[in-house]
Amino acid sequence: MSSPALPSLSDRFAVRFGAAPALRVRAPGRVNLIGEHVDYVGGLVLPVAIDRAICAAASTNGRNVLRLVSEAAGIAPVEVPLVDLGPRTGSDGWLNYVLGVLAQYRELGWTVPGFDALFSGDLPLGAGLSSSAALETATALLLEGLTGRGLDPIERARLCQQAEHRHAGVPCGLMDQLAVGAGRAGHALLIDCRDLRVTPVPLPPDWSIIVADTRVKHTLADGEYRRRREDCEAAARALGVPTLRDVSLELLAANAFRLDERLARRARHAVTEIARVPAFVAAAAAGDATAAGTLLRASHLSLRDDFDVSCPELDALAEAAWRAGSELGVIGARMTGGGFGGATVTLVRRGREAELARHLEVDFAGRFGHIPSVFVTRPAGAAEIMPPDYPAP
Ligand code: ADP
Ligand code: MG
């Protein structure tokens, strides 16, 4: 006997707001395969939009308020007057990703109508999978759908990035918003953050992606992100270049005396990490698992030792995957996202996912006393307004 279907997003919206929504949108999360902490230095990055997403439904309400509901745990429904789209603090902090986007559209001269919105989905929050960019992009698409005006994916990504800078106070690069907005099923995205060129890169069909979320977020994360960015800017200034993208390994070696010990490590991370990205793309094109694995490991070690953004939980998950090695089909593993908690990404031979997931869970739980959230994910398509016949999320 089949179990009764759960109420769909539209049904839940109707229960809450009294009528079916005018539109639904879907904005995926992303996992970055390699190229970490280099988007804001104009580097190369290789994220994948994933099959976990924020879904949202909305209708205009004919009033001068927003009624906003998120099904994420611990978030109470709110009413926001349209005259006050300013930044929020405390438990209303999540609103910054929504109101920030609306405020940016207003700055473009768009009229923001009163609307009701329900945000839902299966993307973990704060796990380094870019739920923030997904929430921003979902909001942007809702507004575009409700007003009938649209932006192209790059303009939208920039606008969402501005929202994150100004409302949420996070000086992020553009990778997350672009990955969410430009994902392609079955592909990673090679993004050149200097000119924003996006090149879809097919992944070998027998390489499967496993995300292992530590389910920890160390509180120092926020200030440290800004400090890393400032370190990279200071290193570039000392080297006399606009950004660390303009620095080769040779130039860095010849000019190391211009940097103190910390800035030298920050610069070494950025320069070597940028070089690892095209090398990884070549390894993927050749199906060279050994080369890809070596690059993922080098990326993790560089983030741990030179950039100081890892933590014991991330190190343990990466090391558990390395130790399992080819015996469990592991191609490679590293921390992904901003660090200080969040998740690792592991590439594994297709068919070996369940075995490896179990190994990571058991190994991690033995050390930290809680089970990480480990799941297989697939490269998915870009954020979109769902067509009316889109299957109910
Ligand atoms: P990440 O982007 O890696 O998930 P961030 O710290 O950048 O981590 O963003 C997480 C924040 O985004 C959450 O703390 C919350 O404020 C907001 N957020 C993300 N998804 C949702 C959601 N579905 N509902 C409400 N807020 C959300
Ligand atoms: Mg984020």
Core attributes:
40% helix, Ribosomal Protein S5, domain 2, Alpha-Beta Plaits, four-stranded antiparallel sheet, 393 residues, 13 strands, binds magnesium ion, alpha+beta, 2 domains, binds adenosine-5'-diphosphate
Structure described in brief:
This protein is of the alpha+beta class and 393 residues long. It is built from eleven helices and 13 strands.
Overview of the structural elements:
This protein is α+β, with helices and mostly antiparallel strands. It has two domains: 9-199, Ribosomal Protein S5, domain 2; 203-377, 2-Layer Sandwich (Alpha-Beta Plaits). Helix content is 40%, strand content 23%. The chain contains eleven helices and 13 strands. The strands form three sheets. A six-stranded mixed beta sheet has the order 5-4-6-3-1-13, with helices on both faces. It has a four-stranded antiparallel beta sheet with strand order 10-11-9-12. Strands 2-7-8 form a three-stranded antiparallel beta sheet, with helices on both faces. A hairpin with a 7-residue loop joins strand 4 (65-70) and strand 5. Helix 2 (95-107) packs across helix 4 and helix 8 runs antiparallel to helix 9 (289-305). The longest helix has 26 residues, at 261-286. The protein starts with 8 loop residues before the first helix and ends in an 8-residue tail after the last strand. 48% of the residues are buried. The mean pLDDT is 96. The protein binds adenosine-5'-diphosphate and magnesium ion. Adenosine-5'-diphosphate is lined by residues 54, 70, 72, 75, 93-94, 97, 119, 121, 125-132, 135, 337.
